[in-house]
């Protein structure tokens, strides 16, 4: 017994250190698994309210620019209204059963974001009360912003494109690949696995592919800045300049893909039915 | 005793708030990523219970983590720094040793010793922070450059803030 207490006295600091370090590493692990919803809701709410006050001030200062962007987007959307289109065939019909809504958009404001971390986060002023769920995409009038990872009732937190996750993307009108952030500056994304036979020119548009359950097809991501051929693997590695200025994000939309659950469930059950060898 | 508890609680809250609402929003660059809250662990009195220092390091880092949504990143880095503090303190001790009631001020420490002690504390903290953030050896050069460049700016901030505090305390 004496030896036992002696041991504890001698190594108490080391034991405490290892214990607390272990707890920290566990939380990092948990955090990376995007399972933060339950534990951190309270802190999320507090920080969210404070960040919102700060963002209100910034928003006021950038109101003019935001107004212009929204007006431009409004104009683009108006142009898509059926009433703005000239009817060529008189029998053109648009009944409710022809079209089913596939994506809906929840307008939101970015109230906190960073560009200088290895995983850059965005905080939005909408939460589960507005219908936001983890896994939904975030886009701005300029293009893809990120994905929601944690939701509380009034706020949600997500990862911007400047972090360790991958998006399925394609060159407009041609081949698709994987887009990720591998550099250290906010103005360079990397599009990988574009086959070497594809024609690439600087300035080409990179957009979301139709393989995503997060984003609609064809949302712009950026433009080709430069590219080089990985001779060993036979793939292009393309540097992309993002169309969003991640430092100055403001008005965004959260994308709700309404068939997501159905698609994922079908895909899951399909793999169950695969023939065994 | 009560006085210093109040004083250090106040310092804890003040530094955490400055980190969360000011410093973390600088967004300078991936390679320039300063942090100031570790000043709290740096200037705790020399003869504070070492178990308490380790625990406070964890608590401070964890508080920052909750507000920045980084899981346990800052907690891991700060608790490591707090654990290694006593080694650095004895390595950079003033020639005549520490007095009984020493607060860690530049005046009592000597500027050069204080800079070395501070610098190494910051390097340890930043290295663990940035290494765990990327959590890979593949981009090890990224981590090293990031540690060095960010530590320089952090050192500047921390010594600056400490200078202001200790001048006010001296009055």
Map the helices and strands.
The complex is a heterodimer of chains A (277) and B (171).
Chain A: H1 2-32, H2 37-61, H3 63-78, E1 103-113, E2 121-124, E3 137-140, E4 143-151, E5 156-160, E6 167-171, E7 176-180, E8 189-195, E9 205-208, E10 220-230, E11 235-242, E12 251-257, H4 260-272
Antiparallel strand pairs in A: 1-2, 1-12, 2-5, 3-4, 3-12, 4-5, 6-7, 6-9, 7-8, 8-11, 9-10, 10-11
Chain B: H1 2-21, H2 39-42, H3 50-68, H4 73-91, H5 106-109, H6 111-134, H7 140-170
Helix pairs in contact in B: 1-3, 3-4, 4-6, 6-7
Q: Can you walk me through this structure?
A:
The complex is a heterodimer of chains A (277) and B (171). With 277 residues, chain A is α+β, with helices and mostly antiparallel strands. Chain A is built from four helices and twelve strands, in the order H-H-H-E-E-E-E-E-E-E-E-E-E-E-E-H. In chain A, the strands form two sheets. Chain A has a six-stranded antiparallel beta barrel with strand order 1-2-5-4-3-12. Chain A has a six-stranded antiparallel beta barrel with strand order 6-7-8-11-10-9. Chain A starts with a helix and ends in a 5-residue tail after the last helix. Chain B contains seven helices and no strands. The mean pLDDT of chain B is 86. Chain B has 171 residues and is mainly alpha-helical. Classes of the chains: A alpha+beta (277), B mainly alpha (171). Chains A and B meet through helix 1 and helix 2 of A and helix 3, helix 4 and helix 6 of B.
């Amino acid at each position: 017994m004496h030896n036992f207490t002696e041991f504890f006295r001698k190594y108490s600091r080391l034991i405490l250190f290892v214990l607390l370090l272990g707890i920290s590493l566990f939380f990092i692990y948990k955090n990376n698994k995007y399972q933060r919803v339950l534990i951190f809701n309270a802190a999320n709410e507090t920080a969210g309210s404070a960040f919102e006050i700060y963002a209100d001030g910034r928003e006021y200062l950038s109101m003019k620019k935001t107004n212009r962007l929204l007006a431009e987007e409004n104009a683009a959307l108006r142009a898509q209204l059926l009433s703005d289109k000239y009817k060529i065939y008189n029998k053109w019909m648009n009944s409710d059963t022809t079209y089913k809504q596939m994506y809906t958009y929840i307008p939101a404001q970015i109230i906190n974001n960073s560009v200088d971390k290895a995983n850059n986060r965005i905080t939005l002023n909408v939460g589960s009360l507005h219908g936001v769920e983890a896994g939904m995409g975030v886009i701005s009038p300029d293009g893809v912003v990120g994905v929601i990872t944690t939701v509380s009732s009034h706020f949600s937190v997500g990862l911007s494109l400047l972090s360790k996750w991958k998006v399925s993307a394609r060159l407009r009108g041609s081949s698709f690949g994987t887009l990720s952030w591998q550099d250290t500056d906010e103005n360079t994304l990397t599009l990988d696995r574009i086959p070497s036979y594809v024609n690439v020119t600087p300035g080409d548009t990179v957009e979301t592919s139709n393989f995503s359950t997060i984003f609609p097809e064809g949302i712009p991501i950026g433009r080709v800045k430069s590219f080089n051929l990985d001779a060993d693997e036979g793939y292009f590695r393309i540097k992309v300049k993002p169309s969003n200025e991640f430092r100055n994000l403001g008005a965004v939309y959260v994308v709700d893909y309404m068939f997501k659950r159905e698609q994922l469930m079908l895909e899951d059950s399909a793999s169950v039915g695969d023939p065994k060898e | 005793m009560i006085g210093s508890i109040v004083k250090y609680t106040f310092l804890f809250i003040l530094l955490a708030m400055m980190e969360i609402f000011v410093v973390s929003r600088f967004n300078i660059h991936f390679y320039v990523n300063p942090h100031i809250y570790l000043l709290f662990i740096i200037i705790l009195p020399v003869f504070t219970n070492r178990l308490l220092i380790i625990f406070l390091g964890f608590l401070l880092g964890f508080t920052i983590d909750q507000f920045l949504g980084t899981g346990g990143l800052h907690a891991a880095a700060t608790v490591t720094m707090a654990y290694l503090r006593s080694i650095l303190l004895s390595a950079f001790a003033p020639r005549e040793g520490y007095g009984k009631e020493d607060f860690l001020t530049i005046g009592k420490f000597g500027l050069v010793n204080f800079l070395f002690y501070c610098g190494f504390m910051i390097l340890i903290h930043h290295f663990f922070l940035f290494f765990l953030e990327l959590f890979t050896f593949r981009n090890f050069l990224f981590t090293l450059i990031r540690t060095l460049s960010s530590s320089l700016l952090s050192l500047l901030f921390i010594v600056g803030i400490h200078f202001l505090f200790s001048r006010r305390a001296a009055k």
